[in-house]
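To illustrate this point, what follows is a protein record of this kind.

___
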Amino acid sequence: MVKRKSRAFFGLFNVFFYAALFVVVLAAVILFVVFRDKLTDDTLRSWRNALSFTSKDKQVSDTIMLDADPRNQYGLFDGKVAVLTSSRLVLYNVSGEEAYAKAVSFEIPVISTSGKEVLAYDRGGELLLADKNGALLELDGPVYTARLNARQWLSVVTQESGYKNVVEVYNPKVKLVYRWKSASHYVLDAAVSPDGRRLATVSVTQDTELSSRLTLCDLGKEEPVAEIDYEDNMIFAVIYPDNDHICLVTEQGVLFLTEQGELIENCDSSSILRFWPTSDFLLLRCARGGGEELLSYSYDGEELAVVSLPGGTLDIAANESFFSVLAEKRIIIYNSQGEITGETDNLFDVRSILQEKDGTVVQFTIDSARIGP
């Protein structure tokens, strides 16, 4: 009789045990179904949000975790990657770790790089200049545009009471060394010569008719050394590629000038969609005859190459002697003469690219970056 009672007891225990186990499993399944989308979107995605680098010499990869954001902007500094969003600037080191991170609040974020430095600013707002060790300069603004040249001279277009705009120049040691105040013209762009001796600004005014002006300043003098007006041509940008040349991007094309502002060549093209200045050449994206073309020019105004763009072009990048085109799941790399130097196919998720000085292309997806040919 005792044995029968024992078996009945354990039989009843087993029934309750498996019933409880069934309830737990059923609850887990229900929870999984309910939160499946959130797990997929948030938890699982965090495993995929990686920024991968491949060293050309060591053939190894490092992985960096970052948020997947289609609004990410990227820059290359000293062989490393910087990522800017409207809320954060992050600089990564070679090993894939965050070397520096700073919370920001940018409505119109802009990023550019030069050497070991990264320039980030909010158009009409604040400015931050940093390297891997931390912030070098922080300005409250308002900053309308800023330019960091190849030797880390910084020009900043800002505002001051009583003037249309003020242009500030900082030397490579991040010391304010020059201020130029514009009383009558709104400054659209400013650039410092590579040797840090001159400042070129382009500005616009409208008294009776719209008029653009190129102003050349010697950083050792208070008054401009030259002012050149262009009454029938709107100037959008100024480029100081070297100490002997100045380039003006206008509504009618590109003006190639000497350092004194004398005309060398006029590239007549009223269909410029975008431009990329490098140390060796100027690259233009133009609409022509129902299609689009890339044109490269020397800073003497000589046309170096014309490349037809395929349909569905996603991005273009240029640096020193190379430029690249991302289109139709492939990347084509050209030299400044328009000759193909590299090509990569079967790219399904690449959204944008940046060009290294040696011709290497960094490929960016929504949540990663990798080195291409």
